[in-house]
Amino acid sequence: MVHDSTDNPDDARAHKSRRGTAPDAPPREIQQETAPPDLDPASASGDDEDDARLPDILEESGAVAEGPLATGHEAIERAVRLAPTSAGVYRMLNASSDVLYVGKAKNVKKRLSSYARQSAPLPARILRMIAATATVEIVSTSTETEALLLEANLIKQLRPRFNVQLRDDKSFPYILITGDHWAPQILKHRGAQSRPGRYFGPFASAGAVNRTITALQRAFLIRSCTDSFFESRTRPCLLYQIRRCAGPCTREIDFPGYTTLVREATDFLSGKSHAVKRELAGEMEKAASELEFERAALYRDRLAALSAIQSQQGINPRTVEEADVFAIHQEGGFSCVEVFFFRTGQNWGNRAYFPRAEKTFTPEEVLGSFLAQFYDDKPPPKNILLSHEIEESELLADALSIKAGHKVEVAAPKRGEKKELVTHALTNAREALGRKLADTATQGRLLDAMAATLNLPHPPKRIEVYDNSHIQGTNAVGAMIVAGPDGFVKNQYRKFNIKSEGLTPGDDYAMMREVLERRFKRLINPPEEGAAKAKDDDFPQWPDLVIIDGGRGQLNAVREIFANLGLTQVSLMSVAKGPDRDAGRETLFMPEREAIKLEPRDPVLYFIQRLRDEAHRFVIGSHRKLRKKDIRDAGLQEIPGIGPSRKRALLHHFGTLKEIERASIADLGKVPGVSAESARRIFEYFHPQPG
Prior knowledge:
alpha+beta; Nucleotidyltransferase, domain 5; 16% strand; 8-stranded mixed sheet; globular; GIY-YIG endonuclease
């Protein structure tokens, strides 16, 4: 979807707090809670489908405590007496005030009456829900359309046990060509579209946006630098030298010429790709006929970049201008919904979702509930194409039309190109679910093997790995990564800025003590009601296994911390690097056991190495971000031997601190007044080797 933005968007809808939670059963029967506010969640990059994990299979018994069926019928009958005959949304709650189910109806009284009839033949899932119901809450709405939108919003907020739940609900990235500068910038954008300019999207993933922006830079030479960087330039940057920018910052191109490039890029993203390519091809032929072969080669390279964009997009429809295509496949008790985004006649990517739903739900039921939640916070396109007919397609179309401000059609095509698009999406859904099931099975075998090798009581469902990073005690940061049956769970990653005062620089034991105490004290003593909730209630918050990077000394230090906290049911292990830090020669240490040495080709050892390396990658990245912030705040004053004169010379030569940071030792040595030793010192200041 392409649209302009010139003012601030409407204020975001306030979220209601969830009534009650259903915590896991942690060690010592302590009620668990989520990560504390002072632990920042990771913003790890990666493929969206890889980050998504399969939900737990919801068995037909045991997930919700079943009370007598008559008690549930009685609770619903009480609600029926006071229920309105108009449209509305109802919530069924159990005795602990946990929301079991959110539903909507054109006539709430009539719908609840269908649950209250004891002789009515209902599925086992509905009977279990009724048996667990203690109270019913009702919200009246003006229309059934309003009820549909409210129902979707409440399901996303409250995550009821008996509803289909949309999981992995990430925002989509857009491409923005800014409109608040004489030389517009092209960049990736997420969130509120408040900055003036043209927005193109949504794209399925950040990777798709990054690849497209890189190709657009080659094709249209539009700048990607920030306005502050742009204004500080006195000479063209590297992107100009490699022909990915026209150099408007130093007037290598005039205003009319740059405006033409921006117009061509906007036309291409708006679906006028054939016209743009014809225009470039004409300019190339004209330059060649005038024997200006260098200029002709430039147009040739730009045409090649445009062709690369379209080849990466794969299938591009001929007759579908703007549509989202949804296809669902079910297998092994799981559902996969594959979504393709088509805008301006171009394929802007696809993403797989694995919604949480009981296996008794039909594909039509899962898809219908999924769609309403999917568009709760996203603008719908003009066409929504489905692999299955859903029961309330007309009602959904009306609701989305009101939300979007234009007509939205929801249909399951039977023939033609639209049917081909749906079939293609269905194939992708089948393959995505197959890959996820295979990956989960492989991960499950590794966890089983780990439990057998380490003599764990059971295969771990949650593994936490801890590491810390610093340079001589400065910018100290600790990190925790999490893995489970579906691999790395990146939305559970946490980083810990070390806050303790008086720590001896480089005291790894004290840093680890602070990290673990902050982590587990929050689990032992959860915050009061109203604090932030877990992002994914399906995933356990208490670890089965904690892994520390280090040897026997680190293990004993952590054992002491756990003993002080009273933690006895969490398995503990440390991983010491081999001689010369060789991978494959690690030694594993566990309490009250001899050191464990596994064969270099042992899959369990390889799995443990992956866990440790991921923790190291994450903590190093967190440390570098913290250090870069300090460097930008401090400027060049902290570098020994760099006084005001050399600082002025460096800034005059490179323009900004960021360019000085990027420079090589050879480039730094070219600055007047900077010796080879000073250049080395400056380079090492910006590129240290963290411990």
